[in-house]
Design a protein that fits this description.
The chain is mainly alpha-helical and 100 residues long. 84% of the residues lie in helices and 0% in strands. Helix 1 runs antiparallel to helix 2. It is rod-shaped, with a radius of gyration of 33 Å.
Length: 100
């Protein structure tokens, strides 16, 4: 993160010190170290959070795909059963007699 904008801004603040004068005092340096640490922690949280969410959405898609395949297999079993085939055949025959 050496060349990022946050580091550049913090380096500039470090040089200015209190009251805008060059050469910040010891308290300013400690405060800037804490600020830099907080910025880096926040940045790490933001960047790793999106990676975690991508993994979660991938897992959700996988579970959804498995559920859809299981439902399709169940539906196929039901539709290919002799009782359901008989009902569908009688429905089509009745529709053709009414139409023709």
């Amino acid at each position: 993160m050496a060349g990022s904008g946050v580091d550049g801004i913090l380096r500039g603040l470090w040089r200015l010190g209190p009251g805008g004068r060059a050469g910040g005092g010891l308290g300013t340096r400690r405060a800037l170290r804490r600020l830099r640490s907080r910025c880096r922690d926040r940045w790490a949280l933001l960047t790793t959070g999106t990676a975690r969410e991508r993994g979660m959405s991938t897992a959700e898609y996988a579970v959804g795909t498995i559920a859809a395949c299981a439902f399709a297999a169940l539906l196929f079993k039901v539709v290919t059963s002799p009782e359901v085939q008989e009902m569908i055949t009688s429905l089509i025959n009745r529709a053709l007699k009414v139409a023709g």
